[in-house]
Each structure stands twice: as C-alpha cells, then as structure tokens.
Recover the amino acids of this structure.
C-alpha cells in the first residue's frame, strides 16, 4: 500500500511539473539479451507492451539539472513502452528510497555507498554507466587563493581564509565527496558551524545559485555547472585532479527483498543506459552547446579501469 500511495504521488508530481519537449536524440537499438515479443507479420514498433509499464527512477539532481534525463528518458520510453517517474534527489536519499522499496532503479554517483547498499542485499544489479568530474568554483577574485592547489589544500585555504563556502548538506554524492575532502584536511566546519559555512539542504542547481549570490566557493559536478553557467557569477578555480573523478552506476532494486518492485522495467532501463547507442548519445550530450561532453560513457570499462 505504501508503494502504491508513493507511485500515485509521483504521477501527480509529474503531471504538475511536466518539462518542455526533449532534445531529439538518435534511435536506440534493442539492449543485448532483451526479450521482445514481436508478431511475425507486425512491424518492430508493435512489440508487446510490458505487463507493468510504470517504473520509478531515483536519481541524482545532477542528471536532472544537467538536462541529460530530458534526452535519455524519452528515448527509453519511446523504445520500450515504459513510463518513467523520475525522482531527482541526492544519492543518499536515492539509496534510501531503494532500501525502502520506493524505487525500481537507481542512477547514482557515490561508489563506496553503493557497494554498501549492494552488500546489504538491497540492490540486485550494479553497472558502470559514465563519469564526469567535480570542480571547485567560486568568485573570480579567488579570495582564498585556491587556484592551482590540490583539493585538500584548497579546502584548508578556504577554511583558513574564512570566506563563504556553500555546502549542499544533503547526503548527496557531491556532499559525500565534499565531506571526504574536509575529513582529509582534518577539518569539520559542518560541526563547528562558522558563519562563513552555508548549508543549503538543496540540489546542485539551487546550491550553485546560492553560491553565486553569496560570492562563495562550492564543490560541484562539471555538468550542472556548465548547464547553469550563464546565470552564475562563478568561475572554475580548481579542476583536473584525479581525486575529483565523479562516477555513475545504475542499480536495480532487489526484487527478492521487495517483490512489488518492477524488476523487469528496472533491468530494461539498466540495459538501455549501457547500450552502445545510448552510450553514444551520452558522449554527444553537451557538445553542441558547450563544445565538450558533459558526461563520458563507461559501459565498456570496469570500476578498476577508473581507479575505483
């Protein structure tokens, strides 16, 4: 009953916040191993509809705020006949939704937390999808002089300068990465609560807006920053360090723990997002507007290839 009520809420939420028509993307080929039932004399577009056409995707705000899902979700829906209810939250909240059986499939970016989730029996399949990187942005004058420093030293410099810093404070993948840098620097402003440390409890796009308004530093994924750059008074001040890698996996919720989840839909989405044609669309996303991809496809790699 809880899951049914949650699904109804998601449907109402989608109806109230429907987005504009998505960017046109190339057609996607059938995922390898997928079982499509097609009448011999019927065209390929008349594949049998799924028994349960609704799936809930819990994902990060970065995939939503960057616009990537505005491209991928319509592609998936058109090809498969599924309807996706996208819930964009922090990775911590997305994993919690999976733990409670309130999602069918997750697209998240906190590898160590994902491993814990799988080991707890909450996830069935986990597949590498893509990566981009984290960057530190801030006011062009760079009052803490972090440019050309490493991430840990940059956080120490910001702390010592006591200049505004915006934290998402929402247990998202980005927030987890930020906390890891504070820990490496043996500093804990979240506990000390200095006036310069601003916690938003919001997603990446909203937090970037706050940082811009406050003239503050912030750790962000590159994709969301580039997608919002024109509306921000923030410059990239630190980038290119291996410690700033940002890796995404797709995870299906374990039907053995939550029999009501739509596992068929979840695995269909997982196979779709690692399909070569979808991976090609990911590689092209952002090229027309920014001259560079916002995400780099990784389905042909392993975690070890990315140093995880």
């Amino acid at each position: 009953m809880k899951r049914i009520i949650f699904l109804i809420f998601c449907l109402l939420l989608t109806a109230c916040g429907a987005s504009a028509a998505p960017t046109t993307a190339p057609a996607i080929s059938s995922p390898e191993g997928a079982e499509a039932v097609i009448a011999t004399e019927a065209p390929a577009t008349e594949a049998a509809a799924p028994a349960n056409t609704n799936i809930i995707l819990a994902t990060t705000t970065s995939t939503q705020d960057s616009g990537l899902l505005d491209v991928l979700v319509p592609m998936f829906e058109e090809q498969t006949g599924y309807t996706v209810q996208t819930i964009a939250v922090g990775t911590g909240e997305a994993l919690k939704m999976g733990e409670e059986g309130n999602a069918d499939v997750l697209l998240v970016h906190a590898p160590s937390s994902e491993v814990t989730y799988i080991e707890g029996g909450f996830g069935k399949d986990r597949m590498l999808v893509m990566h981009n990187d984290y960057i530190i942005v801030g006011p062009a004058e760079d009052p803490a002089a972090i440019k050309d420093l490493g991430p840990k030293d940059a956080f120490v410099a910001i702390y010592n300068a006591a200049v505004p810093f915006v934290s998402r404070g929402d247990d998202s993948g980005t927030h987890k990465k930020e906390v890891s840098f504070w820990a490496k620097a043996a500093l804990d402003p979240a506990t000390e609560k200095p006036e310069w440390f601003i916690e938003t409890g919001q997603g990446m796009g909203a937090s970037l807006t706050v940082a811009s308004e406050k003239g503050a530093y912030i750790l962000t994924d590159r994709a969301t920053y580039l997608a919002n750059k024109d509306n921000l008074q923030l410059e990239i001040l630190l980038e290119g360090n291996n410690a700033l890698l940002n890796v995404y996996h797709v995870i299906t919720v374990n039907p053995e723990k939550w029999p009501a989840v739509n596992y068929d839909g979840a695995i269909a989405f997982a196979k779709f997002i690692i399909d070569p044609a979808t991976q090609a669309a990911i590689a092209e996303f952002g090229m027309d507007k920014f001259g560079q991809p916002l995400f780099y496809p990784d389905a042909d790699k392993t975690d070890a290839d990315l140093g995880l």
